[in-house]
Amino acid sequence: TTGNGDAGDHRYHALMMFTKVDKSRSLQDKFRVAMLSMVKHGRFLEGEVLVLHFVSDEASKELGERMLQEFLLDATFKYEVSFHDVAALTQKLFPIVEAMQKHFSAGSGAYYSDAIFFLSVAMHHIMPESLTRIVQLDLDLKYRTNIRDLFQEFDHFPPGAVIGITREMQPVYRGHKSPASRPTDCIQLCGQATAAEYRHTFWQYRKENPQTRVGEPPPDGLPGFNSGVMLLDLGAMRASALYNQLLEPSNVAKLADQYRFRGHLGDQDFFTMIGMEHPELFYSLACGWNRQLCTWWRDHGYGEVFQLYYRCGGPIYIYHGNCNSPIPDD
Ligand code: UDP
Ligand code: MN
Questions:
Q1: How far apart (Å, rounded) are the C-alpha atoms in residues 318 and 4?
Q2: I need a surface site. Which of 32, 52, 271, 293 has the fewest CB within 10 A?
């Protein structure tokens, strides 16, 4: 280490969820694509360090350490790798997010182990005070540009913004009454929910408020957020009285009731819901920073409006192969 500790702006922190990776060949393949492309395009200045944080179980950690040795071989920059025990983080998180879990998980239960899907929401309380900025990244990404450029986006946050995030690129938050089958975006928090319980999001609210922008496509609508790439300004999150009020159980319940909100996507649902009421908390990252490729809703009742949500002009910096979508080679 360099004597400056975490104080300087020469350390760039990135965090990835990395659990049950030992059990999934598919996740291992995604991890390879993500890390090799990150290394290929990554450039940092002399004295700068990229710190890679992984939230993992013991078996995933052992595999991850071995895979990283190979993937980081060609890195032209300094890096550090830090593994965080998922059980220890869950224990810290659960009391903070327990009350919101029931609104943003399918089925009836608020399962203890699901708390980790809300890590980004309370990261500012979980990570040491010395950590003031971190980006959270999915594993199913492919980088087409220098990841250092992503961190520069923090400098564009307007006053009051605490999180930088890209919009959702499918009509997820348009609200569907009951999809034909279990949606593929419903992997982690759907438990044993029945099809009727997937009735999602703003369906009821939009029915009662036909003129609303909630759930409408860009540029004038509010399509919600996707959590595959997130800039978390932990310092701003700690300092924001508004943001911390919104975490309080009574306020979560109030907003969920106001918007008739029901979700199953964890942190992404929470940010989407509070973003409808308080857009000023969010810095809108260009769509090219999280170019989602999933087209599931195009073929499940939303063919006509799909393109309004899906299209993303401008340069693509990061591809996101969500719902197991293949990522183009270029
Ligand atoms: N993830 C994980 N273990 C799993 C499933 C998911 O660590 O068994 C993490 C991984 O970082 C992944 C993220 O959770 O990128 C979100 O899941 P995924 O990308 O599959 O969801 P999607 O983007 O398709 O909605
Ligand atoms: Mn993903």
A1: 31
A2: 32
